[in-house]
Amino acid sequence: MEPSNWLEETYDDDVRLGFRVREILVDKQSKFQRVQIVDTYAMGKVLALDGLFMTSEKDEFFYHEMIVHPAMTTLANPQKVLVIGGGDGGTIREICRYPQVQSVTMVEIDGDVIDACKTHLPSLGADAWNDPRLDLRVADGIAYVAEAPEATFDLIILDGSDPVGPAEGLFGTTFYENVKRVLKPDGVFVLQSESPTLMPKLFTEVQTTLRQIFEQVTPYFGPVPLYGGSIWSWTIAGDEHTPLNIRPERVELIQPTAKLYTPELHRSALTTPGYVKALLGT
Amino acid sequence: MEPSNWLEETYDDDVRLGFRVREILVDKQSKFQRVQIVDTYAMGKVLALDGLFMTSEKDEFFYHEMIVHPAMTTLANPQKVLVIGGGDGGTIREICRYPQVQSVTMVEIDGDVIDACKTHLPSLGADAWNDPRLDLRVADGIAYVAEAPEATFDLIILDGSDPVGPAEGLFGTTFYENVKRVLKPDGVFVLQSESPTLMPKLFTEVQTTLRQIFEQVTPYFGPVPLYGGSIWSWTIAGDEHTPLNIRPERVELIQPTAKLYTPELHRSALTTPGYVKALLGT
């Protein structure tokens, strides 16, 4: 097999994961980053940004169900939701399953990502792109939270990429402080928080920074087949939230379509295993 | 980076996972297979058999805690244990944590694997290699269960590699029937049962075959960083066993050393997610 027939990502120069390519569908330099959508034999169509694998048709539910449902099944009254990033559409698809949601504001910096995903990965955003509750803005999420009025949202989800390129400022104290200001007092912030096995230093830094700003910071864990490190983390942070108080009537709403989420998975994912406790020194 | 500086496994020609090599410690052709132990930057020392990644220093607990503890924390009286394969020693290490165990018979076909792992991966077998309860036999596991007396073991663990080379016969009906004969009526059989995401056909075949032989067949799931497919499965099979009846006094025994296992993880791992139900047609 020629090297050019593989779509490959290398992590810290030490691990590489490759998927054999069927066809390159998009490969363009947007204003912000290289945007690729590549059809692979193993994962179906894969979205890569600046060479980093973001999501794929075959495994996207491992990521999108995890970033949405632990918050949405436990929040008392999730009416107003803000998604920063999430240009592939998978996160808003899962949020729109809940009739409690009155509005979803999505702030994605790169319109080319949205266009490419609407065209080539339509199963990700699905009907959510046309949901009347969606307020889609092609804009900078960092500026958006700096300017939005305080106590506006019940849930803010940061569905960003790794802290390089346009996503770099999404991992800093100033951004998190603005998120807290824009959240209602009983609201929660959820973010993808990197891999404790593959990027233990970055994972730990995010936890430490969040703990300086929020009263309750709970990382949770699950595998993502597309990500070479296997074990990914998300974190749910807030001041007045109980992320294990699962509401059965919410679970019922998503059970018919969930490929991964169960209440048992929720409870297990939020239990910090020994190897992560060792990392965090707790 | 030169290709030769990477230890790489390719799955079904479509996915490849590589680790950058620090040093090759063992590379020999045994009577049965190519045995390699390679020191890598990301995973520490990795054992590969016929080019397939088996286990590594850094991630081995993801596999070994999962193959042992769901059975050992639920069996009423696990006194006599048989391990088929398991030449790296990680499985017997976890079994030997339980004082209830009176004997562990380990039948590994390839003495060269045991020797290489004792020398280069000593943290895997650790003290278990010298445990007086260990009866270590370098022999064919298929022949062993064909000849062993019936109703001998409380627990049989098949810790084998993929169904190629010397492990091929470990995935057939005759072998499973002999396992059942050699088990006590209330005993259980646990095996690694491949990946539902990476090898869905093989995973499904194993489940179907086991269901023809055992009354209760429960697959369970977890990630293994060393295995490119991310989501691995193990299966617990028996006629009179309740694999969710977790005994708290057993959990206490392993809690001080467990890097992964928790009762929450146990319950979640044994909950079949939607995407696997779809695969199994259940």
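qc> The mean pLDDT of chain A is 93.
qc> done
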